[in-house]
Each structure stands twice: as C-alpha cells, then as structure tokens.
UniProtKB/TrEMBL annotation:
Any Pfam family the entry gives: NAD_binding_10
Highest taxon in the source lineage: Bacteria
Organism this protein belongs to: Streptomyces lutosisoli
Protein name, per record: NmrA family NAD(P)-binding protein
Domain NAD(P)-binding residues, every copy: 17-216
Gene3D superfamilies with a match to the protein in the record: NAD(P)-binding Rossmann-like Domain (3.40.50.720), UDP-galactose 4-epimerase, domain 1 (3.90.25.10)
Coiled coil: none
Amino acid sequence: MPERNPILITGAAGEIGGVSRTMVDMLLEQGHPVRAFVRQDDERAHSLRQAGAEVFVGDLLTIADVSAALKGVRRIYFSMSLSPYYTDAVSLMAAAARAQGDIEVFVNMSEYEQSFMTFEKLTAPEEERRAWLGGLVANWSPQQRAHWVAEQVLEWSGLPAVNVRAAMFVENPLMTWLALEPLSRGELRLPFGDHRLAPIAGYDVAEVCAKILADPAPHISKSYELNGPEAKDMHGFAEDFAAVLGRPVTYVPEDVETWNETYVDTALAAIPHTAEHLKTLTRLMGGGGYRGTTDQLETLLGRPPKTVRWALENHPRIQKLASA
C-alpha cells in the first residue's frame, strides 16, 4: 500500500535525470505523496509541483528549516551536492529526525568507496594504505571523509538508517562533461590506464532508493554496495561512446596528474572541495585501487543493472554532442 505520510526527498531540484528528481517521479507514479526539499523556488521547483510533489523551500544547514520540512514525515531520503558542509547537513537532519521521533527509515546516499576505504584500512601505516588503494592515494578526499562521518553519525543516532553506497555514476563529470571536448574530436581521454571499472546509471540508484522507501522494513540497518553490470576497461567505454555518438571514438590514456591539472583544476578552480574529490577518484581508479563488483543491485531489483550505453543514450550532454 502507498505510504500516506509524505516522503521527504532532499536534493530534489537537481537536473532531470538526477537521482533525487528521478525518485520523485518514481514514487509519485506509485501513488506515494512526496515532499521535495529544494534550496530555491525557481523553475525546477515549479516542475516538481507540476509533477505532483509538495515543494518545501529551505536550507539544509538551517535547523529550523530542516525540522519544519520533517513535519508529518516518516520516511527520509538524504542527498546533497558535494559540499564542505555535507556532514553538518546530515547531522542536522539526523538530529531533527531524532527530536521528532517516529521515523521509519532514513535512506542515506553514500558511496561505494566506503566499502573498502574503511576505518581499519585508513588507519593503517601510510605505506599499507597506499598499497591497498593502488599507490596514488592514501587518504579519503574531503567528501569521502564526510560520507564516512555521516555513516557514523547515523549509526550513533539510533535512527533506522540504510546506506546506499553507489559506485561512480556513468553521469559523473569525469565520464561526461569533463570529457566532452576530446570526445568531440573522437577521443576518450581519461587517466585510468587499463584498469576496469563498473560505473552505475543514476536511474538504477534512484530505483533502489525508491524501493527501500516504499517498503523499508527489510532494509533497516543495512548498507548496499551497488555497481554497474560489468567491469570493463576504457577501450570498452570508448566503444560505448562510439555507439551512442555515431562516430569512431578511441581511448587515449593520460597521466593522472597531468589530466587532473588539464581538466579538473581548470574547470573547477572555483570549487576546490569538488575538485579535490574528483582528483582523489582519478587517483584511485588510475592506480587500480577501485575494488570489485557486487550483484546487490540485481538482487534488490530482480533485473540486471542498466548498461553504460543506456545511461549515455539518456544523458542530455551526450545527446547534445551526438546531435552536433
């Protein structure tokens, strides 16, 4: 039966195709009332209202707003853009949820790295950390640290939490808009050598989260590690891009730090927190420290994950490049 109390979805004003916005549409289609937490009352908020969501305009870092947004809510999905204040926002939401009581589930969007960049591994001597993480990185990025702390806060809170640890999205800037200019020349320039990755489609993550929110009881206190359908190297990804763009694409491997300076530092100079997170990801993947795949998504949804090619075919920036 559909939940009658509104389900709170943060980050709901993201781009159409983003996880939170996709979840809003999925839950509304299933008959669940949704309260979408947004930062600004703009055209994206208007689009959410048109879709049938109740829109709450507020600041995730203002406890009065967070508490007001939770009134009448029993199920929470928390996500937020990369931010130096990510842990603050999770903690405020957890505090408000504890104060209100009667929360049935707190679905926390985490990250796949939490499954192997663990407390035990990250407190080992530096030489051991580097060896474990591929040799190019020894510590969490500031955002990875924030996600680790957020998971601890939720555990300490006693709330009925579920951590959804998603692998790198196909829609990640590393795979999409930072790669666009070389792609326009038929080159997939990335610093990942011959290492194999299994990025996940944002749509799949949204469907898993919506499933948990619709029926939370079987999932409480669990952490799920989600990947795409298969691990493959960048030559395989170049084939996917070529198929979607309708033109030849060749993988051109680059040095990790040269690529970071050329693409990340140039594009994200004004957002150092995000830049440092992406550079840590490139070092992890470029050093071969991004570990393994799981079948947890297929178990949860009863179907294989969406392919990289499917995600690219449904990505607005890639679609625009294909039609250029």
